[in-house]
Batch of 2 targets.
Target 1
Amino acid sequence: MQNTNEQFDTIIKICRDIFNKKLKDYGAAWRIMRPESVTDQIFIKANRIRSLECKGVSMVGEGIKPEFIAIVNYGIVGLIQLELGAADTEDLTAEQAIEYYDKYAEAAKNLMLAKNHDYGEAWRSMRISSYTDLILMKLNRTKQIEDNNGNTLISEGIDANYFDMINYAVFGLIKMEFEALFEVISKYGWWSLLIAAGMGLIYICVKLVASKITDGVKGGMDDIAHKLTGTVANQLQEMSSTNSSQIEMLSNNIAKQNTDLIKAISTQNFQTF
């Protein structure tokens, strides 16, 4: 029981953190939703979980865990809406919304503990897909009660169904978060864990080798570029040196010719005089 208590708190903390972040992004925009709309939203989430469980493939890259979290949070939103009624505007601050969230999360936990006391932890022997089906069953009941304007002859009301949906979703998240590894071991044996660890090591080694190859190719390309750059620079320097030598030689030749010409003219003039 103590383990369940701690695991429940861990899951609710995860759900609450997401709820709080969305409050900061959008505010309590859900306050305009009527309870029937909340029920339909939960139905969409639960139906998608069932579809993924049957098909085993997600086309948008999201698994069932976010959907279970959404069911927990929408279930609490539904309870808040039942108490306050739908609003025409966003009339709750983030702090007030979190207070209501904590109130109903605690109430859901107390209900879970009471039922665990009566039934034991039979839910731990259930498959996650069974929680999905139970949530869908509760949704169909809730929709029927809503269509009857909330009136029932013997059944529990809408709020009780919301509480059950919340707790079934939490159970599914506990199974995924804490018991998935043990289910694999019990089904396939301890050797499956060793194979998984070996595959993980192989994956890491492949990544390292690929990284080294990439670095080697990059380093080789850098060396080639450096050598090409050096070769071009040397050629330019040689061309510059050659041109400088030629220019200097030409200048010296011109200077020598001018000197010889001046001497010749001077000698001729001196003899004439």
Target 2
Amino acid sequence: MPYFLQNFKLLPYKNLAPFILSIFFIVSCAQEDATVSGDTGPIYKGPYYNEFLACNAGPEFDNGIQEMLAAWQELPSAAGLGWAGVYAPVGEDHRFSNGWWELEWDSKESSDNAFSNPSPEFLAWSEKYADVMTCDIEGRFPWTFYLPRDPASFGEVMGEQGYFASEFLACNFKEGKVRQDLRAAVVQFNEYLDQNGSANPYFFGVYFPEFDGAEADFLWGNWHASFDSMKSGNADWEENGKAMQAKFDEISTCISPDYYDSYELYNNPST
């Protein structure tokens, strides 16, 4: 699928907060259930307020990570939180050695309230698993996220135990190009998918940075059921998507993608 994403700059870690969060979390929470429309076409859902937290394994990671994640799933969910997942880097040519936790909220206010007023259960969980994983909560990176297409358009991406394969690319706009140009191209990409389909489950999303020091104008995520299906989809794209890729290339330049083993931990569509 499209080679979209350019490097964004991770700011230096601040103090690792006592809250211990694992690998790489994605939390998705829809602000609206209705389709959002604009001058350059519809968006399936969004905007959402997403945050990425850089996480590092502790000495007890191998022995405790599965228990830690299962225990997190039993915690009371924070108000405004809609989806959560974890990501671990795959491959040698990866820009980041750390994992990530991504959270998607219905608003910045919900995120600020959750981190400013953690529940007693969360604090106890954090202390218990402090040697398993630490994450930079104070230095989390906020993004505005759009979901341009129904994630289930081509079947359920999340498989057994919530597993899915992720591909992230960081991109910059070419001179004179702006977000509206990207949005128009996304509408055309959706039309391409409508016409050509996908042999395997697939969906995508677009992130715009909301923090100082970002070197990318946007982040593009491709999500597949497995790396085998990703490979198959990319091969099909290289063969049949040349014209659509050329339209993306007119708008931006992107660096090589980063890949992650990924797991969905929480999903609350009603948020």
